[in-house]
Amino acid sequence: MHELEWAPITLEVGLRWLDLTGIVAFALSGALLAVRKRFDLFGVLVLGCVTAVGGGAIRDTLTGQTPPLFLRDETYLWAALLGAALAFAFGERLARFERTLSIFDTVGLSLFAASGALGAINFGLGPLGVIFAGMLSGVGGGIIRDLIANEVPEVMYRRDQLYATAAAAGAFTVWALHPHVTPFQAQFAGSAVVTLLRWLSRRGWARLPVRRLPNGQG
Known about the structure:
Layout: H1 2-36, H2 41-62, H3 69-72, H4 75-95, H5 100-122, H6 127-148, H7 164-177, H8 183-202
Helix pairs in contact: 1-2, 1-4, 1-5, 2-4, 2-6, 5-6, 5-7, 5-8, 6-7, 7-8
């Protein structure tokens, strides 16, 4: 009896910690870009928070879950502020590591794509809706981050580093596994797929084709 009572609590805590880890990772990603762009403290905090909660906010709005989760539970916003503040405080040290930004971005992408897919399943969406919601949860914050920082969104052109495709694959994994495993296991597996695809693409082992125009036009 006690095991049955504790199991849902443990599962809920595990999923929440995965979400909060993704929030902090994405906040670090956005805030580190702001530090590189020489934003002031306010700008760093704003860009970090927008990156962390932007994708989830778009997903919640599209599925009618308003106000977005980060406004209903401010723990997520505090986690985003913490990640952004850490980036501002230790930005110089973190910047010494060439792949720091990419690592945090990948962690956030993987966790958000998987959690977004799980939320879409709970909302009753079909497979395409689950994949779209998961992908949007993963890439939405990064797109907003890049636009604010006056960068071309990475999702639009980096065929050598799978981004939206990896997020969609992770969301599909969650959808495919959720009838057979626990939500925590499905989210973990989806996150692992995203991370694996990102790693493979960074090494040049997985990429998307590009359509070339004839006669040197593109």
